[in-house]
Write a structure and sequence with these properties.
The complex is a heterotrimer of chains A (about 180), B (about 130) and C (about 110). Chain A has 7 helices and 5 strands, in the order H-H-H-E-H-H-E-H-E-E-H-E. Chain A is of the alpha/beta class and about 180 residues long. In chain A, helix 1 packs antiparallel against helix 2 and helix 2 packs antiparallel against helix 3. Chain C is mostly helical and about 110 residues long. The chains are: A alpha/beta (about 180), B mainly alpha (about 130), C mainly alpha (about 110). The interface between B and C is large, with 44 and 38 residues.
Chain lengths: ~180, ~130, ~110
């Protein structure tokens, strides 16, 4: 009876693994699935397999997946230039790369273990905002840098706080946007 | 590196010696109780992962681990050829337990270091970006 | 929705069918190696655990080549996953020579 219940629960957790919206939750469901599989092995009289399944499936693979999830978070920053004439020239890109604000954002991403990827685009700010590939949109106009982030992102809040605490928020303005509203 | 959660550090630190103990138990009692080289070795590999969770520092060279793994693989290949296939154990059965324990230990260390190399490769992987080229 | 429901129905039917078939109509093969090993493993190998006896004595070649397979897998992993410090190509040129990547960069949602 217990065994049949565990097999049914395995099916439930397999379904949850596929259909959960958070990858982190998926990994936890998969660990529970492996643990139930180990119990089923015990009921079938294979304790060696049960130990191997519990150690590898429930421990090693879960931790490896969590490490991979933590390591692999790419944070895509779009530098929108809005079709300026000098946009995307080498000197513009070099200047933007050596910009102090971009440097700070990059260092912030490194400290949070994101991998910053800076994309230079000729799109306008609105087009860049509506593109779901970009997590942060930077634009540079009349000597002032505008940083836009999605309104449901906590990263933009922390970023704004960091600029305020460092006292480096002189030439910079922050904005939020919602993707549905655009 | 970003600071880690204190809860994770405490729990992993508490579990660390017990994982070491469980690995040795599984390996050394492999011919009496369920367990054996592969299971104990995987538990040793869990130690590497736990170490990475607390200290994400690449101060352990995966080359040394790989060298040890190759060394123990050579032992796994050589010891049965000398002891088992030569018919030595058929005449002296009092050494059989020693042989089983020794082989379990070799397999455990080999599997543990092998999976440890795999874990370190995954953990300190540089990442696939636009700069990635073969 | 209909596709998903039909797929779920198919999986359920196969699961129930396989379970019923394998539990109702079991076929027992003639035990030849099995009986010999269960009776004699303690005398032959001095192990108290039949699995250890089979893995480390009766089927030693299997264990040896299993260890070899693990080494092969690790060598392949070392070949294709460059770790930090050993591979430093193209780090400074990020973003400078590429203007806009049209392809999707994989990332966590």
């Amino acid at each position: 009876m217990l065994e049949i219940g565990m097999v049914l629960l395995m099916g439930v957790f397999a379904w949850l693994t596929i259909h959960s919206h958070l990858l982190r939750l998926s990994v936890v469901y998969m660990a529970i699935f492996s643990l139930l599989a180990a119990f089923v092995f015990v009921f079938h009289g294979a304790p060696e397999l049960a130990i191997a399944e519990a150690v590898i499936g429930s421990g090693l693979v879960t931790l490896l997946y969590l490490v991979a999830l933590q390591r692999y978070r790419v944070y895509t920053i779009c530098v929108a230039s809005d079709r300026h004439s000098e946009a995307l020239s080498d000197s513009y890109i070099k200047g933007m790369e050596n910009n102090e604000i971009v440097h700070r954002i990059r260092r912030f991403c490194m400290s949070r273990e994101f991998e910053p990827e800076i994309v230079f685009s000729s799109k306008s700010v609105k087009e860049a905002m509506s593109d779901s590939r970009y997590d942060l949109v930077i634009t540079h106009e009349n000597g002032e840098t505008h940083v836009y982030g999605p309104s449901n992102s906590y990263v933009i809040v922390e970023l704004e706080l960091m600029f305020q605490m460092d006292g480096a928020n002189s030439g910079i303005r922050f904005g939020r946007y919602t993707r549905e509203g655009l | 590196m970003a600071e880690r959660s204190l809860i994770t550090q405490m729990i992993v630190g508490l579990l660390y010696p017990f994982m070491l103990l469980l690995g040795f138990y599984l390996i050394l009692n492999g011919h009496y109780t369920p367990g054996g080289g592969f299971q104990g070795g995987s538990t040793f590999a869990m130690l590497f992962v736990a170490r990475y969770v607390v200290f994400p520092v690449a101060d352990m060279s995966s080359e040394h681990l790989h060298l040890l793994q190759r060394l123990f693989l050579a032992l796994i290949l050589v010891v049965p050829i000398l002891v088992l296939f030569s018919g030595f154990l058929a005449g002296a059965s009092e050494y059989s337990g020693m042989y089983l324990t020794l082989m379990d230990l070799f397999i455990g260390v080999q599997v543990g270091f092998g999976l440890g190399v795999a874990v370190f490769r995954f953990a300190f992987f540089k990442g696939i970006g636009p700069s990635w080229r073969f | 929705m209909i596709r998903m429901a039909s797929a779920a129905l198919f999986v359920l039917v196969v699961f129930v069918g396989v379970t019923v078939l394998t539990t109702r109509y079991q076929e027992k093969l003639e035990p030849t190696m099995y009986e010999y090993m269960v009776e004699n493993f303690q005398r032959d190998t001095a192990a108290h655990n039949a699995v250890a006896a089979i893995l480390l004595n009766y089927r030693m070649y299997d264990t040896m080549f299993e260890a070899l397979i693990l080494l092969t897998a690790i060598i392949g992993m070392k070949q294709f996953l460059p770790s930090a410090g050993e591979f430093t190509g193209g780090k400074s040129g990020r973003g400078a020579d590429t203007t806009d990547w049209s392809g999707d960069s994989p990332k966590q949602g």
